[in-house]
Amino acid sequence: MVKVSLDNVKLLVDVDKEPFFKPSSTTVGDILTKDALEFIVLLHRTFNNKRKQLLENRQVVQKKLDSGSYHLDFLRETANIRNDPTWQGPILAPGLINRSTEITGPPLRNMLINALNAPVKTYMTDFEDSASPTWNNMVYGQVNLYDAIRNQINFDTPRKSYKLNGNVADLPTIIVRPRGWHMVEKHLYVDDEPISASIFDFGLYFYHNAKELIRLGKGPYFYLPKMEHHLEAKLWNDIFCVAQDYIGIPRGTIRATVLIETLPAAFQMEEIVYQLRQHSSGLNCGRWDYIFSTIKRLRNDPNHILPNRDQVTMTSPFMDAYVKRLINTCHRRGVHAMGGMAAQIPIKDDPVANEKAMTKVRNDKIRELTNGHDGSWVAHPALAPICNEVFINMGTPNQIYFIPENVVTAANLLETKIPNGEITTEGIVQNLDIGLQYMEAWLRGSGCVPINNLMEDAATAEVSRCQLYQWVKHGVTLKDTGEKVTPELTEKILKEQVEKLSKASPLGDKNKFALAAKYFLPEIRGEKFSEFLTTLLYDEIVTTKATATDLSKL
Questions:
Q1: What residues sit in the active site (predicted)?
Q2: Could you report how far apart the first and last alpha carbons of the chain are, in Å?
Q3: Which residues, 6 or more positions from 514, have their beta carbon under 8 angstroms from its beta carbon?
Q4: pLDDT confidence of residue 1
């Protein structure tokens, strides 16, 4: 075993040694053990410099795009990978053969139980966009998964008892999404810098649960977010190899599905599957983040201005091309091509509106099935039966055998012109309304927020911010009023929305809309552009103490 020093490692929180969710006796101390910390510190020290280099590379690409002399295209240097028909992904892993319906949600204890009890095949437990990364959310998410995998997650609240409907071995397969490469965990410092949040989330879950998951025949499996280059996938693959060697399990035991949710990654899908090779379990269409990334990377090009968000759909030219290329890529390489999120939630007090929403979900899933997806996502257990009814028509656990005949070019992936697309005052209001509501909830520790009968995560707030930045920067003209979008106009409407939302808030003066607006304002005035809202806001939810915990007492 490699000897790992915890010198110059600082844990800036108290470690709770009392169980919080009785009757389970699991505590935070059972997660933040000395040996688990040694494992994640080893991964961080080995791979963090490469992580930072790859993040810098994203900005190099952005500067080239901003110069106007460079356009995204398929990489010449990896043409041999794309043109080689012989390589394939691995055989499908246990518990991942049928993924027709996947449910997603943050690792909150009650939501975790509800998801595992849902009539779905797999469950993506999300430490990323649907979770606000407070210390308690992140570390108790690990506690909850530890307990779920050991059938000891049941708990009672004053209002309700939460219990699994059976043995976890017979319930949906758990797939964990750690935070993206751009995020850090500021409650744990290694060599005077915060640890990579990706390594923190992955490492603790893997270290404590990998062998138990293997015993169950269910993992360990992961979803990998926000990557922009195939070398970022290689970094994950290198981490997987070291992690498996460290605990003594065969390489290739881990499987990872990559969310293709950035525009640059769409040009490197095959390379991403290739880099993960024995660990690949496919690709997924992360639709809202993909729209966010498209605006972000092309924000300074007046030829790529998107209209009101509700007019950007999966049938928009650039979105349709991305879906078709993803399915073709995955099936040619023998791995799953997963569809996107149905974010709708039941509308209990309006049967007519609810039926309309459910019809929209059904039609969306039919489109995905027809295109060739092997399964799709839902955000709420009530939507699972709809997805099941659609995908049972595959007649097989997946349709990897179906390779659609289509050729998607670089120009197709960049075809952002949307026929009859409009930018209106209502589009501004909608972006501000959704963005403010999400940011306010996130600042209070909630990353999975019901807004307008949709379960929203960080991606929708990112779309709001990016669109407003882009519209202001290029001074677009509103279709309904003929008015030019200016910093003054977006600021005026922002103030109106803050006042309206603050008055309606059940929290009264304790709401955080003013704080959300403080961060939102420079972005929507076009004065600055942050890579991610979540990193911009993160310091507001960090709760470190001045004196580090004595690690010798763990």
A1: 177 (proton acceptor), 457 (proton donor)
A2: 20
A3: 498, 502
A4: 64
